[in-house]
Amino acid sequence: MSWAFLRDLLSGVNKYSTGFGRFWVAVVFMFRLLVYVAATENIWKHEHDEFECNIKQPGCENVCFDHFFPVSHIRLCALQLIMVSTPSLLVVFHVAYRENREKHHNQKLYKNPGKIDGGLLCTYLISLILKIGLEIVFLVLFYKLYNGFKIPPLVKCDIKPCPNTVDCYISKPTEKMIFLYFLVATSCLCIALNLGELSYLIFKYSIKCYLKRHVKKQQ
User: Sorted alphabetically, which SMART domains does this protein's record hold (predicted)?
Assistant: First the structure.
């Protein structure tokens, strides 16, 4: 899978971000995207082939694997990376709209098309709220799928066509659980950064509005 588009997207939105936003981009790129490409993808690459049960009943191993891993961890992780980065497109599109509008009217309509103010501020706040919401949704999804972020070495399965309760073994459970914890930690860090940026922008805009009203009253 090529991550060039996601890399370019993160690099593009970095130009319009605050300090919180730039740190968020660095965390996503270095601690999530690079770790996924370099390590996580290899750890879960052969998860189905390495899942073994102590019985050779045809179909038993497949249904047990599907029961304990209804969604491939590696695909879910990739989907999370894509989904939490996609709201940044709203900001990029809004800046592009401002630039095209200036070209169409052939005059300077904004002091800086990439400055976070007015309508672009609303778009930026919406993108932050979407990022926070998507991060929380995926954390809940991981929690539900992996029984509280746990990957046991042994699971017991009694689903048909298994003739009785069989023991199934998950390969490299400790290594997988460490990377799952790392994923959860970076996701929580991203939520904290997005919340910090959201609070910062709202506070900054509120102070700006208050000062404007105060100046008008004095005049």
Answer: CNX (SM00037), Connexin_CCC (SM01089)
